[in-house]
User: Fold these one by one.
Assistant:
Number 1:
Amino acid sequence: MVGGGQGAFIGNVHRIAARLDDHYTLVAGALASTPERAYESGRRLRLARERTYASYEEMALEESKRDDRIDVVSIVTPNYLHYPVAKLFLDAGIHVICDKPLTTSLADAKDLQQAVAASGRIFTVTYNYSGYPMVRMAREMVAGGCIGSLRVVQVEYCQGWMAEKVEDSGSKQVLWRSDPEKSGPGGCIGDIGTHAFHLSHFICNERAVELSAELSTFVSGRRVDDNAHILLRFENGAKGMLWASQVAVGEENGLRIRIYGDGGSLIWTQENPNYLLYSQRGKPQQRLSRGGPETAAPGTAHSGLPAGHPEGYLEAFAQIYTDTARLIHAHRESRKPVSSAQLAPGVLDGIRGVEFIEAAIQSSANAGAWISLKL
Amino acid sequence: MVGGGQGAFIGNVHRIAARLDDHYTLVAGALASTPERAYESGRRLRLARERTYASYEEMALEESKRDDRIDVVSIVTPNYLHYPVAKLFLDAGIHVICDKPLTTSLADAKDLQQAVAASGRIFTVTYNYSGYPMVRMAREMVAGGCIGSLRVVQVEYCQGWMAEKVEDSGSKQVLWRSDPEKSGPGGCIGDIGTHAFHLSHFICNERAVELSAELSTFVSGRRVDDNAHILLRFENGAKGMLWASQVAVGEENGLRIRIYGDGGSLIWTQENPNYLLYSQRGKPQQRLSRGGPETAAPGTAHSGLPAGHPEGYLEAFAQIYTDTARLIHAHRESRKPVSSAQLAPGVLDGIRGVEFIEAAIQSSANAGAWISLKL
Amino acid sequence: MVGGGQGAFIGNVHRIAARLDDHYTLVAGALASTPERAYESGRRLRLARERTYASYEEMALEESKRDDRIDVVSIVTPNYLHYPVAKLFLDAGIHVICDKPLTTSLADAKDLQQAVAASGRIFTVTYNYSGYPMVRMAREMVAGGCIGSLRVVQVEYCQGWMAEKVEDSGSKQVLWRSDPEKSGPGGCIGDIGTHAFHLSHFICNERAVELSAELSTFVSGRRVDDNAHILLRFENGAKGMLWASQVAVGEENGLRIRIYGDGGSLIWTQENPNYLLYSQRGKPQQRLSRGGPETAAPGTAHSGLPAGHPEGYLEAFAQIYTDTARLIHAHRESRKPVSSAQLAPGVLDGIRGVEFIEAAIQSSANAGAWISLKL
Amino acid sequence: MVGGGQGAFIGNVHRIAARLDDHYTLVAGALASTPERAYESGRRLRLARERTYASYEEMALEESKRDDRIDVVSIVTPNYLHYPVAKLFLDAGIHVICDKPLTTSLADAKDLQQAVAASGRIFTVTYNYSGYPMVRMAREMVAGGCIGSLRVVQVEYCQGWMAEKVEDSGSKQVLWRSDPEKSGPGGCIGDIGTHAFHLSHFICNERAVELSAELSTFVSGRRVDDNAHILLRFENGAKGMLWASQVAVGEENGLRIRIYGDGGSLIWTQENPNYLLYSQRGKPQQRLSRGGPETAAPGTAHSGLPAGHPEGYLEAFAQIYTDTARLIHAHRESRKPVSSAQLAPGVLDGIRGVEFIEAAIQSSANAGAWISLKL
C-alpha cells in the first residue's frame, strides 16, 4: 500500500476491503509522506519493519528485488501522486489498484494507459460504487433489455459537509481536496462527480458523447468548484442530467441514479443500497431486493447474505478488491477471468473520468458550450 | 365556468375545489365547444337551462346583462382559448380564475396583463401546487431565514404516461395537449414544466434571471417536446436544475423540489405532500408534518385537519379558490385581503410561465445558449 | 345534522364530506347542546332560522311534519347521544348516518339494530377509513384470492396527542372523550381501537371470534384506557395482533394494517394512503398506487384523480357519504344499490364495534382471558 | 471454530466478522460432524491439517495441550450442541463466543452459567443485532433520559421464507431448525423471537417480568411454531408487544423496534439500520443518522465510516467480535474493558433468552396465562 497512514480515511477502507474476502494480506507499505509517520503507521498495522518503507520509490525498488515480493500495490495517496506511483510500480511489473480520479491531467492519464498496456499488468480503479450488488444487477437488467431503449438518465451525488469553509479546520482530508495542486483542477466534480459519471456508464453501458456544464463555487475563498450542474448527451440519443454538490446542507452521501428507457425504468440510491426500484410500462413498481425473489444479485462475493441482511459500503468496496484478485489469478494462470471480475473498473474508466473533469471545466468556462467526449 | 364539459378532466377538479370551502355556487356555464355537448353537460350539472350557454361569447354577453350575474368565471379550456375568453370576461367586469399556462404566446400574455390592470378585476391563475399547506410553510420558512441564503434549487416534475404514442388513442386530453395550435409551442415544458418553475419561485421568492435548456422529443411522431432539461441562474447567484418529463416510465405525478441555502435545506414531494424535510447545518434532519408540532401550516383553509390526516390534491386546489374568494370579498369591501389570500398566483405569475416556455424553446434551438428572463 | 356546532371538530369534516360529491345540501340542524350555541352555529352555516333547532327532539318532531323534510340526518354528537338521537330519527322515518362507536353499551346497540330493522331505513356508520380507495382495493384483492388463505393480521392505530394529561386543557374534544359517561367505558379502545378492528374485518372479510386484551392507563388521573394490546383469533384459524394507543409520542394518526396469507401479503398505511404494498410468495414486492397500473381502484367516487394526485382523509370520508346517498337513491327506487355503496359500514359493523369494546374491557379485567365475540 | 463447515451459513458470517477488525486469526477448527467433511472444510479455509480436528472433543483436548493454543472458540453448531461444546472449552480454560439461543433447555443454560462463573473465562453470545451503532445509540439515549419513563415497547421480527413447507427441500439449514431435537422446543420463537426479546432489553434496559403468548404453527406438518404473538409486562409498568413470524410472506428480515416513553420515542429498523427516528413530545420527528450530526454513534469499531456510507449486518456482527476481543485483552491485562465492550451480550442474556422460550411455550399451552420471568 502506498499512502493510507495515520490520519488518512480511505486507506483503512481499502485495508478492510482487501481483508473482507480473504484474498489479500498486507505485507508492505509506504504509508506516509515523511519517514517518521510512515514507520509509525507501519508499526501500528503490524507490518514487518523491513518492509515499511520511507518512500514509494524505495518500496518499488526494494520490493521488485524480493522473491516474495508483493503481487499488487494499492495506491491511496492524494490524487496528484496516482500517476507517478502507478507508473513506477507498473514498470516494476507489479499489478496496481488505484484510487480515483486516475490522474490530475488527461495527458498523464493517457500516458498511464500506455504504461498499463506496455506492462501487461492488471490495473483497476476503485470506482467502488460499481461494486454494489444491486448496481451490478441494474447493469445486467439494462443489458438484458429490461428498460428497452435508453432515453433519460438522472444521476446525482450530493453531500453537505463542505457547505461552510471546512478548509479552515486544518483537516488533512479537506486540505488536499481543496488544493488544485494536489487534487487536480476539479473540486466537487473530481471528488464525487466522477463517481456519478462512472456509475451512469457502468449501469447504462452507453457512452456520453457531449456535455454542457455550469460549475460553481459557493463558499467564499474556496479554490475549486463545490457544485456542478451538467447536461449530458449519450451516443444513442439519450439525454442526462448530472448534479454533484458538496454544499447541499442535510445531504450525507447522496449518490442516486434513475434511468428511463422506452419500456421501463430503474432507480437506485446508495444510502439504502440493497434495493432497486423497477417499473415496467403499464405495470406497478417493483422493489427488487438483494438476495430476494427474482433477483440475480445474491450479494457481494464474500457474503452471500440472504435478503433483509443489509450489505453496505465496505462490502461494495471489497467487491472491487475481490474482482481484482480474480483478475490476477486468471492472469497468472493465463485464462479468462470470471465475468463478474471483468466488471472491475479499469484504466479506460479512469481516463474517461479525467476527460469528464476537463470537459466540464472547459464547458463551464465557455458559458456552457457543448464539449465532445471522445474516449 | 367556460370549458369543463363531458370528457374533460380538469373541469371537475375545479368544480370540487370551488365547492370544498363553500364559497362558490356554480350557476352558469359555456361548457363545451358545440351547443349540443354544452347543453348536455349543463343538464348533467343541474345548471338552469337559461344559463347554459352555447358559447363563451354568448355567456359573457348575457351574464353581463343580468342583475344576478356571476361574480367570477373559471376558465378551464384548452390553452389557446385562455386569452380571448379571459379578455372578454374582464371587459365585462367579471373576476377571472384561469388555468395555466396563461396564454400560448408572450405577446398575448402581456396584453392580458394590461387588460387585468385596466379592468381592476381579480385575476388568479391555478398554479394549484402552491396551495399545499407545506408548500406555503416552506415559503414562510425561506422568507424567515430558515435556510439562510439560497444556493441551489433542484426541482423536477416527471410523469410517464406519454412514454408511448398516446396521441394515437384519440383521447381529447392528449389530442389538444400535443397540438401546438391548441396548447401552444411547449409540450411537456408548458404542461408541467411551468408548474415546477412557478413552484421554485413561489417557495424561494427569488427570481430566475437566465436559463439554458435542452428540450427533447423522444416519442417518434410527437409534435411537441416530451422531456426538458433546464439550468437556471437566480438573481442572487443561486443555481438551479429543472427537469420536466412526460416519458419517465414509472413516474406518476412526480413534482419534487429541494432547496439548499448556506444554513439549511428543505425537501417537498407532491406525492406525499403532508411532510416537509428540513435540515439545518449541523443538526439532524427533521420531518415537519402538516398540523404537527412547530408547524405554522395547520391545513388548507377548509379543513383544519390535525396531523396524520392526509390532505391531498383537491384540498390544495381548493385553496386557490378560497384565496380567490377572499380576494373578491376584500375587493368588494375595498379592504386589504388576508395575507394567505395574497399568495394566490396572479397574472404576473401567469406571464412569467409563458416567458419561461418561450425562453426554453429559444435556448434549446440555440444549443443551450443562456437566455435572459426579464419579467 | 345533530351536533357539530362551534368548537366541534368532526362536524365540519362531515359537512365537507357531504358536499364533496354534490349529493347533499345541509338544510337543518340541532347543532349544539344549548339553544344559544345552536342558533349561532346555524347562523354561521347559513341555515334558515326556522330549521335551526334548539334540540334534536324538536328537530325530529318538526322535520317529520314538513313536506320538504330532510332525507337523512347526520349524528355527530358525543357517543352517549348516538343511541337516543338515532332512535328518534329512525322512528320518524328518516335515514341515518351515525358516527362511531355506535353506542356506549352493547344492549343499546342491539336495541338500535332492531330499530333499524323495524324502520326499514338506511343506516350507515362512519367507519371512514374503509372509504379509502386502496382499502377497498385490498378488500377486493383478498376476496379474489390474491393472498391465499389468511394467516396473520397485524393492525395498529397509534397516536401521541394524549401522552400528557390533555384533559386539563379544558378542550371540549378531550373532555367528552375521557369521560366514561359521555364516551362510554372505552377510551382509546373505543375512540380508535374500533377503527382498527373494523378495518381488519372490512379488508379480510373474516370474523374475529375471540380476543385477549391488556388495557392500560398510563397517564395518571385519566379515567379511561389510553393503550390497548389485543390478541385476536379469527374464524378460519388466523391470528391477529391489534395495538391502539393514544400515548405513543411522535405518532400522529398511525393506522396501519398488514395481512399475511399463505400466498401473499398486503400492507396499507393511512398516513400515505394512496399506495398498497403487495407481495406474492416468491415475487418481488409491488407498490400498487391508486389510479395506477393494474389497479382496480380508480379513486374515490367524486374525483377519478389519476395516479400521483394524492387523495386523503376527506375524500375517504366523503366516500361513505356518497355510498349512503346511493343506498338512499336505490331505496327510493326500490332497486339494488351499486356494489360499492353496499360496502358502506352498517349497523352490524356498529354493533360489532361495541361488542369489541366490551369484550376487551372484560378480558383485560380478567388477566387477558380469551373472550368470545358472537356477532 | 466449532461447526461452520461446508453448507453452513452462519459460520462464514462469524469468520468475516472475526476478520473485519483484524483482531482474530482462524487457526483451528472442528468444522463438521463427520471427519471427512471436517477435513475438507478445513482444507478450503487453509487451516493447518494438524489443527483441523475430527470432533470438538478432540479439538478441546489437543488445543488445551498446545503452547500456541487458541485464545477463544466460536461455537456455530446447531443449538443442541452449544451446551456440551461450550462447557468442554470453558473447562479447558478457553474463552467462548457462542451463537444463540444459548441452549435447548433452561436447566442446561443455568448449568452453563455456573460453568462460566467457575471458569473465569469471557463468554459472549452473538445477539448480533445489538452490535448495530444506532442500536447502541438508542440504548444510550434511553439511559440518558431522552424518552423519559418507558411506557410501550413494540418489537417485531418477521420473515417469510418458511411460509411454505421448506422442510421438504432437504436443506440442512431448515432441517435442524425445524427439528426440536436439534434446535430445542421453540421454532420461530427461538430462532428469531429471542433476538427481538434481547433487543428490547438491550435498548430499554428494563426487564420484562411477565409474558402471555399465543404460538401458532401455520404450515401443516411443521414440528415447531412458526408464528408467535406475545404480550409483555416490564418491571417498571411498561407494556410490550412482540411479534415473531417466519410465515410473513414478503418480509425478509424484518426486525423492528419502537419504544415510547412519556417524553419521547425511538424507532429502529434493521433493514435500513443506519437511521434512528427520534420524536420528543411537542417536537418534529428527527432522523438521526449513523455518523451524522448530534450522533454519538460514529460507526462500528472498525470503520468510522462517515454518515451516508451505509454499514450493515456484517459490521454489526463484527462489533460483537471486536467487543469480545477487547474483553479478552482486558481480562489478560486484568483491567476493566472499555465500556462499549461491556455491552457485548453475555451468559445472562443467553439464559434469559432460553427462559423466554420456555415461558412462551408454557403460556401458549395454557391459553395465554401470564408467566413470570425471573432472571
Note: The two ends of chain B are 29 Å apart (CA to CA).
Number 2:
Amino acid sequence: MFRHTKLLQFEAKPERPDPYYARKLQELIGGAYGEMTVTMQYLFQGWNCRIEGKYKDLIMDTATEEIGHVEMLATMVARLLEGAPATATAEAAQDPVMAAVLGGMDPQQAIVAGGGAVPADSNGTPWNGKYIVASGNLLADFRANAAAEAQGRLQTARLYNMTDDPGVKEMLKFNLARDTVHQKQWLRAIEELQADGLESDIAPGALLDEEDQTHNNTIWHLSDGPDGNKGTWSTGEDRIEYLMDPKPLGGPGSAPKPDPELYATYSPTQDAMGTVKGKAQSAVNKVT
Amino acid sequence: MFRHTKLLQFEAKPERPDPYYARKLQELIGGAYGEMTVTMQYLFQGWNCRIEGKYKDLIMDTATEEIGHVEMLATMVARLLEGAPATATAEAAQDPVMAAVLGGMDPQQAIVAGGGAVPADSNGTPWNGKYIVASGNLLADFRANAAAEAQGRLQTARLYNMTDDPGVKEMLKFNLARDTVHQKQWLRAIEELQADGLESDIAPGALLDEEDQTHNNTIWHLSDGPDGNKGTWSTGEDRIEYLMDPKPLGGPGSAPKPDPELYATYSPTQDAMGTVKGKAQSAVNKVT
Amino acid sequence: MFRHTKLLQFEAKPERPDPYYARKLQELIGGAYGEMTVTMQYLFQGWNCRIEGKYKDLIMDTATEEIGHVEMLATMVARLLEGAPATATAEAAQDPVMAAVLGGMDPQQAIVAGGGAVPADSNGTPWNGKYIVASGNLLADFRANAAAEAQGRLQTARLYNMTDDPGVKEMLKFNLARDTVHQKQWLRAIEELQADGLESDIAPGALLDEEDQTHNNTIWHLSDGPDGNKGTWSTGEDRIEYLMDPKPLGGPGSAPKPDPELYATYSPTQDAMGTVKGKAQSAVNKVT
Amino acid sequence: MFRHTKLLQFEAKPERPDPYYARKLQELIGGAYGEMTVTMQYLFQGWNCRIEGKYKDLIMDTATEEIGHVEMLATMVARLLEGAPATATAEAAQDPVMAAVLGGMDPQQAIVAGGGAVPADSNGTPWNGKYIVASGNLLADFRANAAAEAQGRLQTARLYNMTDDPGVKEMLKFNLARDTVHQKQWLRAIEELQADGLESDIAPGALLDEEDQTHNNTIWHLSDGPDGNKGTWSTGEDRIEYLMDPKPLGGPGSAPKPDPELYATYSPTQDAMGTVKGKAQSAVNKVT
Amino acid sequence: MFRHTKLLQFEAKPERPDPYYARKLQELIGGAYGEMTVTMQYLFQGWNCRIEGKYKDLIMDTATEEIGHVEMLATMVARLLEGAPATATAEAAQDPVMAAVLGGMDPQQAIVAGGGAVPADSNGTPWNGKYIVASGNLLADFRANAAAEAQGRLQTARLYNMTDDPGVKEMLKFNLARDTVHQKQWLRAIEELQADGLESDIAPGALLDEEDQTHNNTIWHLSDGPDGNKGTWSTGEDRIEYLMDPKPLGGPGSAPKPDPELYATYSPTQDAMGTVKGKAQSAVNKVT
Amino acid sequence: MFRHTKLLQFEAKPERPDPYYARKLQELIGGAYGEMTVTMQYLFQGWNCRIEGKYKDLIMDTATEEIGHVEMLATMVARLLEGAPATATAEAAQDPVMAAVLGGMDPQQAIVAGGGAVPADSNGTPWNGKYIVASGNLLADFRANAAAEAQGRLQTARLYNMTDDPGVKEMLKFNLARDTVHQKQWLRAIEELQADGLESDIAPGALLDEEDQTHNNTIWHLSDGPDGNKGTWSTGEDRIEYLMDPKPLGGPGSAPKPDPELYATYSPTQDAMGTVKGKAQSAVNKVT
C-alpha cells in the first residue's frame, strides 16, 4: 500500500514559461525510457520478486521514488505551460521566437490536458506497457534496469543542454544525480547476485551445459567491415573466436506443403521454377 | 547493402507439428525481446554509429546475423503448423490433447498468414519500433544490448522447457548458444569502451561534475522493507549512502493559474478548500 | 512524494492456483478500465488540478489508493500461477480440465514474466496512456471518473461470477466495495462542483451563449427505430425536441482543387462524371 | 444498413486556408474523444444493446449522426489545407507567420493523404478501438457517453478559441451545440434507466449485497492533503466516512516459490535478506 | 450525412452458439483487413476525393455498404455468444469440446462487452487508423482497395472452412460474393482511370521522366535463388533486365561527426579501428 | 542467412543539413508504406511461400534489396541532421527560417537517437508489424505489394517536391526508379500467376461456385451520388449490375437475451419501448 505527501521530492520551479520545452520534457515522462517506465518496471519487478530481502527491498525503495519523479516532471510541465500562447492563432505570430514556439508546441498539452502534462512522449506517442520488463530473473532484470537508467540519464543530459532556465536546470541536475546513483546501484546489485551465488554472468545461468557448445563462443563475420575482430574480445585466453568466412549450417529455408483449405498458392505438379507441368491446375487454387 | 542465401544459419526442422507451440514461438519472433527487436536494434545502432572501426563492425556483424534468426524462427513456425487443424471446428475436438491445441492456437497464423509466422508476439501483439533503442551513445546502447540478449536467452530457456521435440530443441540449443556469446560480447565491448577511454562507468560520462553532488550517492528508504541497506552496495568505502528517513526537498506540487480560454476548473476567489468565497462565480467557469 | 508499505491494502490469497483465471484477471490490471488506468488517471488529474483544496485532496487520496490496487491484483496473479503447468506441452494434457487451462493460459505470464502479472489486459494488449484523461476541467474529468469506476465495477462483477475460489472472491468483494464508493464519491463531487458554482451541468460551462441555439436541443431521427422519442427526455417542459425528418443543413461535401505537387487524381477539364473532356490529359497526372 | 447523402449535416467552409489549424482539428476527428470515437462507441453499443425500444433507438439515432460529424470535420480539414505550403522548403520561409505554419503543420496530411484528413489525432497518433466502450450495461455505458461528450465539448471549446476564421467558428458553434444536447440526452437517459427500475445509481446494480459492506462507504486518507473530507460528501446522513489514519488490511505482498523451469531468481536456503545460507547454490539458478 | 435502417443488409442468424468461432470472426470486424478497415478506408477516400462524379460516387456507395457489413458481423458475433459459458470456471469443463471452447474463447467479449463484439481482431488487438490509406491518388488507392478486398475475401474463405453452421455459412457466402464484386469493381475502375487518361500504369504517373532512367527497369539478384529471372517478366521485348551480379553504387554508409551536446560516443583522435590515439580522451565523452 | 557490405546500394549524400526535412523523411523509413514495411512484408512472404522457384526467388531478391533501402534512408537522415540546432532553445531563434526548423524538427531524433533516424514515421508513430501482410496466397499478396509500391512511390514523389537539395534529389530519383520497377514486376507477376493457372483474377480463386451467385455482381446504390453507374464498369456485356434502389435483405439487427451473470441491461417484461411493464424489476438488474 502507498501513501503520498504533497511535497515534491525536489523543487520543480522554472524561472519562466517555455511551452516548446514543455513538449520536449514529455520524453522524460512518457517516453520509452521516461519515469513512467522505471516506475512501472520496478513496481512489477518488486511485486514479482521471488526472493525476499535486500534485493526486493531495494527494488521497492527505488520504485516508490520513481512515482515521485513522474510527479516532479508533470508539475514542471504544467508550470512551463503557464501563460503559453495556447489559443494564439498562427496569424498572431509576431516574431520568429513566437513562431518557433507555436510551431513546436504539443497541441495536446493544450487541447487535451488544458495546459498540463500527458502520459506520452515528446511526439505524443502514448506510454505503453511493453516499455517495461519484469521477468522474475533478477540478473536479466537488473541488466535492463541499468540500461534503462543509462538511456534515461542520456536523454536527461541532452535535455539539460536544451534549456537555459536555471530552475529547470536545477531540477535536471537532481535527476541526473538520481540516474547516476540508480545506474550504480543496479550494477552493484548485479555483482552481489553473482557473489551470493544466485546468478552467473550469463542470464539465466541455466542450460549452459545443454546449449550448443560449438557455437556459444564465436562471432560470425557477416558484414564486410574489417575490424570486428580488433577488439580485445577477440584476443587473449578467453577470447571469443572470430569466424572470418562462416558458412550456413542449415539447409534451405522452405515452408511445407500448405493446408488446401487455407488457399496458399501451390501446385502439386510444379517444377522447381514454380511452373505447373502437364495438365494445368484450374484457376481455382484449391488443391483437390 | 545486403545479400541473402537460401540456406539457413542453422537447421529448423521439427520432428512433428505442434501448432500450440508455434504460437508460443511467436514470442521469439515478434516479442519485445524477440529476434526482430535485436535485428532492428543493431541495424539502427550500426547505421547511427559515430565512430568507425571495431565497434561498428561488431554491431553490423551481429545485426546481419540476427536477420537470419528471424528467418530460422519463421521457417520453424511454418513447419510446426504443417497439418495443423486450422479449419477444425471446436465440435471436431475428440480428445483433450486436441482440445488444448485448438484452444491454444493462434488463430491469426491460420486466418491471416495461411499457416505461417506473423510479425507479432505469442499473444498476437504486433512488433513495434519502440522495442528498440539506438542512441548513438555506445555505453548506453551496449548495456541495452546485453540486457536484450539476457531477456532473449531467458525466454528461449523457458521455451526450451516447453517442448519435447528433438528438432525444436536442437535449434533452440543453437539459439541459446548465440544468446550466450552475444551477451558476452556486449559485456566485453563495454569494458573495451572504458579501456579506450571513450566512456566511463556511468552513461553518459558527461555532466558528472555538474550534476547535484549531494544526491548522486544516496538510496532513499521509501518502502518499509528493512533490508534495502543489507547489500554490499551499502557497505565499504565506496558504499552508496542509505537515507533511513528521507524528507521531501521540494515544496508542494501545484499547478499554476490556468489559461481561462482552456476552461480548467478554477476560481479566483476560492479558499484553501476550493470553495468559492463571497459572490459565487457563475456556472460558466470562464474567468473574466 | 510517495511511501510504500509491504502490507497489502487487502488480503490477496487464493485458495488454489488457477492459471486460466490469472489470465482473465489481467483485465483488471492492464485493461482499459483496469487499476493501472484509474491510478494514472487520478494521478495526472491531481497533478494538473488548478484549484487547491478538497477536490484535489480527494483526487490524490484516491489515486494513492489505486496504486495499491494494482499491487493487490499483481500479487493475486502471481499466486494464482503458483504451480501452473507453464512448461507442460500440449501432449501432456490428460483431461479436459487441463486442456482448457493449457489452451486458455496467457503464454506471456510464463515466457515473459516467469509466472507473474504483466501490464496488459486479458488478451495481452499492453496498457497505454490513451486510456486515461486529465483535462483540467473537473466536471468533465469527474464524469470520466464515475464512468471508469462503473465499467471497472462491471468487469469486476463479471469476473466475480467466473470463479469459485473463496480467497479470490473475498478480495473481489473488497474491490467491488471500493468501486461502489468511488462511483459514489465522484457523483457527489459533481454535485458539489455545481453547488459551489464552479461548473454547470454541461461541461464546460463556457460558450453556452455562443453555441448554435437552434441546434442545441434537438435529437435527429436518423435511424428508423420508432421509439427514440418515447423516453421522458422527449416529454415535459424541458424536453429535447425530436426532429422526425431532419434535413442536412450543409451543401455537398467536397474537397478543393488539389496541390499539383501532391499528385491527387484530378483533371481541370473533367465533367461532372469525372470524365476528361476535349484533349485528353496526359497519363502524367501533374496539372500544368 | 446505412444510406448516405452528399449533403453535409452542417456547412464546413472556412473563409481561408489554415494548415496549422488543420492539424489541430485532427484531435476532433481521430483523438481519444473525437468523432470517430463517439461514432464507433454508439454503433457498437447499439448493436450490442439487449433491450429493444427507446434506449436502443436513441443510441442508433445518435450513432448515425456522428458518422456525419466525422464527414464534416474531414471536409473542413481538406478545405483548410487548400493552397497549403505543403511542398515549401524550410528555406522558403519568409516571415514568422509562415515559419510557424511550416513548423506546426502535420506532415502526414500532405505526404500520406495528399492534403486531406487522416484517422489520427493532432499529434498523428492513429485512432484505435480501445478508445470506445460498449459493455451491454446501459448505465455504465451512458455514463461513459456523457463523459465522452463532455470531453469532446471541452476540446471543441478550446479549439474554438484557437481560430478567428468565421467559417470554422460557425461550424464549431454547431458542434458545441450538438455536444451540449448529447450530454443532456445521456444524463436524461440515465435518470430514465433508474425511473424504469432497470438500473440503480451504482453500475451494475448487482452484487451490492454481496460486496464487502465494511469498505463500501469509506474514503481512505492516503495523501496528506488536509481537505479531502471538507466536501459535503463527508457530511450529512448519507455521508461517506473519511478514514483519517487507515491501516493496511492485508499481509505482506509476496510472490510464491517460483517454477524452477522458468528461472526466476530464487534460493531455497536464502535468509530474510536474500543471502544464501550454508552451501552456496551453484551459479546455475535452476533449483534441483 | 447518413441514415440507418434497423434491417440488416443480409441475414446474420447462426443455427447455434459457437463462442470460439465468435472469437475468430473478430478478424473480419477489427482485423487489418476486416470490415472496419474497408469502411474507414472508403469513407476517407471519398471525403478526400478531388474529382467529382463516377469515381467518388462509386467510392461512397461502397463505403456506405461496408458500415452495414460491420453491423452484420457484430450482430452475428452477439448471437454466436448466446448462452456461451462465459462464467464457467475451467474446473467446470466436462468434456474436450467444452475445454477447447473455454480455452479458445476471447475473454474480452465477455468481460468487456458483456457477450458482444469488440472493435478488435481475433487476438484482441484493437483496430487502428493506420490500417487504412486515402492518399488522394486514385490509382494508388484503388490498388490498395483491390488488395484489401483480396485479403478480406481470402480470410473470409478460410473462416468459411472453419464452421459447419448453415446460418453462418449462408452469411459468409454473401460476404464472399460482395468481396468478389468489390475486387472486380476496383480492378475495372483502375482500367477506367487509365482509359480516361487520368493515370498511367505506374502510380503516380508523375516524375517518370525525372526518375533515374538507369535503374527503373532492373531486378537486382541479391538472394541466391536461381530462378528469379525465369518468369516472363524477364523475357520478351518489354522485359525487366535481371542484374546477375549487381554491385553497390554508393560509398560506405557512415554517420557524420556528432553534436557534442548529444553525447554520441566519438573521439576526434580515433583511428580506423575506433581506438583513441595519443593522449586518451577523458572518460567524460563530451568533446571540448 | 544474410550478408552485408558497408557500401550503400546508392549514394546518400545531402549537400547541406536540413533537420526539418530529416523529420519528413522518416515517413519513408518507418511509415505505413515506408521501407521497413516492404522489407518485412517481402521477407515474411518469402519465408511463407509454398511454391519454390521463380516467384519465391523474385520475392527474396526484392526483400533483400529493401533492407538496403532502409539503410540508405537512415544514413541520409543522420547526414541531414549534422550540425542541426538540436540543443538550441526557442529563445535562440534569430530568423524565421530557424524558427520553422526549430518548430518543425522531430525532437526524438535528437533526444532519443542522438541525431539519427528512428524506426518511426514523420509524426513519431513507431513502425509496427500490422503494416505488413504475408498471407501465403500470392495473388492476394502481389496485389498488396503493387499497392504498397504505388503508395511508396507517391510519398517519395511528394517528398521529392519538398526539397531543393541536389544530393537528396539524386537519391530520391533512384528510389522513384526502384518503386517504378517494383510496381511493374508485381503487376507482371500477377499476370504470370494467372498464365500459370495458379490463380484466377479474383483472390482466392476458391469458393467462387459456392459463394452467393445473386449478389456477386451488383453495386448497391447506397449514397445519393448520381454517377456511380456512369463508369464502363456498368456497361457492356460483362458489366456489373447497378442496383438503383437496393433493399435490405435481412431482418432487424438485434442482440439475443443476455447472460444474466454478465449484467447487460435487460428486462424480461419490457415492452417494445424498453419500458418495464407491471411489477417493476428491482434496481438490481440481475435477472432472476
Note: Residues 278-288 of chain F have pLDDT under 50 and may be disordered.
